[in-house]
Amino acid sequence: MIPTIEWHGKHIRMIDQRKIPSKIEWFICRGYKDVIRGIQRMVIRGAPAIGVAAAMGLAMGASSIRANSYAVFRKKLKKIAGEMLLARPTAVNLRWAVERMTGLVETMAARPVDDIKSALRKESEKILEEDIEINRQMGNNGQSLVPDGATILTHCNAGSLATGGYGTALGVIRAARENSKKIKVIADETRPWLQGLRLTAFELMEEGIPVSVIADNAAGSLMRQKRIDLVITGADRIAANGDVANKIGTYQVAVLARTNKIPFYVAAPLSTIDPTVKNGDLIPVEERDPEEIRRFGRLEIVPARVHVLNPAFDITPARYVTAIITEKGVITPPYRQGIKNLFTSARL
């Protein structure tokens, strides 16, 4: 598997996902603002991976703070945390990671600043390690839902590149393969960044898992022909009622799956579930630069005076979701109670 992000001495390096599959190139972060730019400019993407990056970025930012007193250090770190939170608004893992890191600082008020800096670095490393293990647990929980011989449709990229490693949706697929199931994957292209075409196909090809790529608008036709047995996607935020925010286009895939009586599964860690948000209508949906639609590489493909809309995510209502796969188990409807029960058991 490709390492998505890692510490490299005092610096952070992340695979520049904009360059895959043409080449594998590291994006080097020498300061926390580089991490923010990496998140904003799609060098790194995927909710869990963004969470890991935010944790590392805060640790890097903390290391650069010149302060001897806890109060001054805390004030400056709070400012960095505020900047980090603005990097991408939809993926809740970013906020979760920032709150975990700043929460650690709150417990260390009596400790020297250098000790706090060291603890933040170790905590970011722990978050990365935990993410990989969580994904493996999630894969093991979800692979039982995958029949032997199944053809699986994925949307966007929810593999090792979208996480600390192993993957959410692709983690389920990897676990099914590790359990000797003969599976095939269809990855839709996922406009406008083509994460399915470039990243999902690349990951699966590298691991020898049979994969085919389709245009986004071909999914319904293949479902009608019974050439798809189930759908598995990741998520960027899940509301308390089970509504799912994920890459734009997920909603229409879910509707098509329901119409064709195909299971639609979402694989996401507990950190992606936001119990403070009652339903999907309250999840902020990021609007990105229209140039991402207007251009294909250097070629302008939209008439110059035509207005462009570029929502990065959509909301899939819980009624279209067959089950939510987490590291603590599989949640089935009714989701509000299932999510509540899972959080309660996780705290025990």
Concise summary:
This protein has eleven helices and 16 strands. With 348 residues, it is of the alpha/beta class. Strand 8 and strand 9 form a beta hairpin.
Report on the structure:
With 348 residues, the protein is α/β, with parallel strands linked by helices. The protein folds into 2 domains: 5-136, translation initiation factor eif-2b, domain 1 (Four Helix Bundle (Hemerythrin (Met), subunit A), Up-down Bundle); 138-347, Rossmann fold, CATH 3.40.50.10470. Helices cover 41% and strands 17% of the residues. Helix 1 runs antiparallel to helix 2, helix 2 (47-63) runs antiparallel to helix 3 and helix 4 runs antiparallel to helix 5 (113-142).
